[in-house]
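Notes, p. 3: input format for complexes.
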Amino acid sequence: MQQIDNHNPSGGPVLAFQEFIHLESRSQIDLDLLRGYDAIILEQETLHYGIQIIEKLRNFEDNRVYLMPVFLSTKSENNLLNNLVDGILDDQDIVDSINRSAEINEIVHQLPIPLDHWGYEETILFKQFQYLLSRNKDLTAIPTRHSKLGFHFPFLNGFFKQSEKLQMLDLLEHAVNKRWLIPKLKDKINICSSCYGGYLNFRESCNKCNSIDLNVVELVHHFRCAHIAPIHDFDRGDKMVCPKCTKELRHIGIDYDKPSQVYNCNTCDHQSQGAAMKASCIDCGKENSLDKLITRSIYDFQLSALGEEIAKYGLNKAVSASMPDSTSNSNHLDWAIFEIMLKNEMLREKSGNINSYLIFINLKQKDFASFDLGTKQKLSADILNHLSNYLRPMDILGLKNLLQYGLIIPDMEEEKVVEFCELLLNNIAVLLENNLKLGDDFMEINLIKIDSNAKFPWA
Ligand SMILES: [Zn+2]
Ligand SMILES: [Zn+2]
Ligand SMILES: [Zn+2]
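Output follows (459 residues plus zinc ion):
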């Protein structure tokens, strides 16, 4: 541990005073140890322990600790670690580090801490925004092979296990939809559909038996007799002779050409013009066909004005600042309220001779699993808007989740409601097919008469 203060060389007043704590490799850190210090100096850290200490630090509840400036004593061989700290002592005058630390802490001391009743995801976004604000920098995705996705987001990364990194991207996209972060496209990744790993090995395999033991064989086309065969059929030691017309082939381009190649499988002997490219996952071993890989965009993010508000004043104020969210234009009900309305309609049916129907629209999870949260939210907003266009004033629209919608259609004849249902089905199908490439059968619609015996698909 070391106390460093920064005296003006002329003996004038102290410009800043920051107390640093030195942490060595494998130091155990706890709150009591860190309180009372202003910044941390990591000694010669290996990547693993360095990240471990930083991520543990970011998990504490006290903002003076989770936002504490961290410096490396000397530059790490790994660029990732260099990117996670606020400075490297070797690289700069100690006074600069002290000033940097003081600058960060001055902001940190004005920031609130997360409240107990916030959810986990709200809390980490809030802390992340504070981190960006106190450092006055953007959230930059750092390419690294030490992350399963291939990219590391400073600060946020420590809150997600390796297997949950896709949720991390979802959370960031959620923040973009809320206009808390402003994205800038950086890269696209293709990841394993089973474990979301980005460490993939691409190679060709047999169309028939999936073996990767393939030979590529060139085809030879003899102009004179038009015979085409694999090159080894022409091979006669030091010359090439056509097996069909027995003429010698001398000059490529004059006697013959090589129009294409074929793949010969050494496992099953299958011969074909093309081989399937497969991506095998180094982490879990899954063989992914290319169209089954999950493609996601990687962005750098800038904190928006609203994001800054959240960092400074907490989430509640910003949420009530009521930025219009993408679904707020349509008149739909939360599902809990929708279900109450549905119960009312069942009671109404009991007391009189009425025909009311429930339409339940279910977009199948499996067809939409590979879409990111942002796409699904956009889709859902479009569908809600679309549905509300068709509704009469007395009809009720409910949103169960981004893929499931309910409609209560009071007082309509069966024939009419069936027609109405078909109209909806067609229109949603057109809407989705125009926007996305989907297989057949990605949606089901249930039409249920509302009476006291009615069974609902979600119950
Ligand atoms: Zn995998
Ligand atoms: Zn084969
Ligand atoms: Zn020939």
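The first helix runs from residue 31 to 34.
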